[in-house]
């Protein structure tokens, strides 16, 4: 079993930090490769050389249209959404000391989805999503939905401290109730808004444009440094709240920061692409396994998330028939992995 | 869970009260709806079918009431059997992925094999339900055992997500079927007819018979697997009969209405509070409570939606999620 339930070897082994650095570097290279592949993959016969030449401004007008206007925002969205989800998942998994505690399962993702669907439906009257809705209304509504859900779930799970499994179960219940409310909104909406909302809920990168990429990019730039700065406190938190407090961590402030970062990142990602399932679960687990750490390394988790989303989307465009949304692919890969994890993770860990 | 927490003489009264509740719910379901028809007019149309020119009563309200009572009963009993076998208070055919398996099989049948006949739909739903149930229980049993709520709930979530992704994959490649599928998948009682119900009734009766045959084993299993074995229980046979009851009843329900969740979770908890843990009383009481809840939620969906009705599956998901959270919060989860 990789670091999931393993002993805290990283503290004793001086080279563990080097390994994490190496893994992070490898992941960064993988992000570059997948990003270029995302530019080339697709239905028009564009070569690698064409794509690179167009990127530096030397392509023909049709090539410029395809690469700069269609593919580049899509790749940028995949990279940023994946990074946000990977980082958010790493934060919540470490926070709850439970790999099952991802934004998906805790209900944060569906809360963001409910907020965004409400924005889409209430923006009704217009026949397409205007860029104002995409750029401002959607992210704000998604953030609101995600924040309220996170607070409610966390509050309901609180009983002399938070047991991480109670947190997970209440998240499952909240996810169901929110899903019902979302269906209710869609059922009450005009047919065009309903179609837009249900298409969007699958989680797809098709049809993203620069206005929808900007909020998630902004969220990453603002939130990621705050989250990365919490790394040492997260390490201390792995030893239990009492030890962490003894080591000088301001537990409540630290908790609030970590949860706030995860919520903001999830909401930004969901507002850009719709909920892309299981990325926030899989990416941190892969990063943790590669780095042999006791908790998911934050930066590497974000990079793996980028690779998973962008790679999955490129795969869907180039190999599979039709336009399969990347959300379906990540679920098809992530759910079996979750089942595998259930078969192998027999240890029960509680939060104090 | 004590068998004798409820005075023995009270149980028949409670069950009679539940029967009356089903009757009241059914009557309200016939009288209320998005088409405002005066009660006397409804009674007149019921008595004289020819007077029901726009078929609101005989074409819509009667079938959905009958199907609501039937499906609610099936899911209530299936949920009680599931909670009894797993000794897990969160067990529900919807939460644990059994309904998702049946749905995927039905969607495959409709959009890949192009069969929509009730018998074929039912057979497919049955196969899907059995496979999904075996996978979920298998995963959970190999992990930490069935009685711990968490692995089963997570395994059910994962299997549901996976099956849902496959279902979306099939449906998205066939745009014309998307609209029909969307209506079906939320679970609804509107637009269903009573035709082709005969074969479903056979499955329902078989499922209820299995559940009835399972009552004694369920009571023994409530003492724990070891004690049950000590009492001479053949565990494998008991589990197989229980699995048959759960999958038959769930598959029949999915074939009629599409997947409707949380009845199997809610009804047994209501029933257990009223008649206690003895499965001789718990199973029928759960079924009756399931009928009341399902028909009641259907009426609620008709009333809050105005002309555009809210399907019962949506109402139940919202209310059921709240019930789920309440059960988790109560925290006496290992005592079932």
CATH class of chain B: Mainly Alpha
**Assembly status:** heterodimer
Give the H and E element order of chain A: HHHHHHHHHHHHHHHH
Number of DSSP helical runs of chain B? 14
**The CATH topology of chain A:** ABC transporter involved in vitamin B12 uptake, BtuC
CATH superfamily of chain B: ABC transporter involved in vitamin B12 uptake, BtuC
Task: Itemize the secondary structure elements and their pairings.
The complex is a heterodimer of chains A (352) and B (336).
Chain A (H helix, E strand, L loop, with lengths): L8 H4 L3 H25 L7 H8 L5 H36 L6 H4 L1 H15 L8 H27 L6 H25 L2 H11 L8 H20 L1 H7 L3 H6 L4 H23 L5 H13 L6 H21 L7 H19 L8
Chain B lengths: L9 H22 L7 H9 L8 H31 L11 H14 L6 H25 L6 H24 L2 H11 L11 H17 L1 H7 L3 H6 L4 H23 L5 H13 L3 H27 L6 H19 L6
Helix pairs in contact in B: 1-3, 1-13, 3-8, 3-11, 3-12, 3-13, 4-5, 4-6, 4-11, 5-6, 5-11, 8-11, 12-13, 13-14
Structure, explained:
The complex is a heterodimer of chains A (352) and B (336). Chain A has 352 residues and is an all-alpha fold. Chain A contains 16 helices and no strands. With 336 residues, chain B is an all-alpha fold. In chain B, 74% of the residues lie in helices and 0% in strands. The longest helix of chain B has 31 residues, at 56-86. Classes of the chains: A mainly alpha (352), B mainly alpha (336).
Concise structural overview:
Chain A is mostly helical and 352 residues long. Helix content of chain A is 75%, strand content 0%.
